[in-house]
Write a structure and sequence with these properties.
By secondary structure, this protein is of the alpha+beta class. It is built from 2 helices and 3 strands; from the N terminus they run αβαββ. Strand 2 and strand 3 form a beta hairpin. The radius of gyration is 20 Å and the shape is elongated.
Length: about 80
Amino acid sequence: MPRGKRIQPRLVAVDEVPKAVRRSVYVELVEEFARSDMKAAKLEGAKVSSLVSVKKAIAALGLATVSAVTANGEVYLTKK
């Protein structure tokens, strides 16, 4: 089977770099928690493996007063 011509990388001019439009569901939950008067909250239905995504959401929003922790296999948000 003959191989096709290999495409070489090239530069293409663009007006601007596109901004990320995909937002994690955790961004909305963390935003909601930050606006609320709750001191602590459990992320119901979130697995421990989602902790990294939750921490990314906190960092993306620049919330220094909110942190995410795990306890007993569940993810919790707390305010400092």
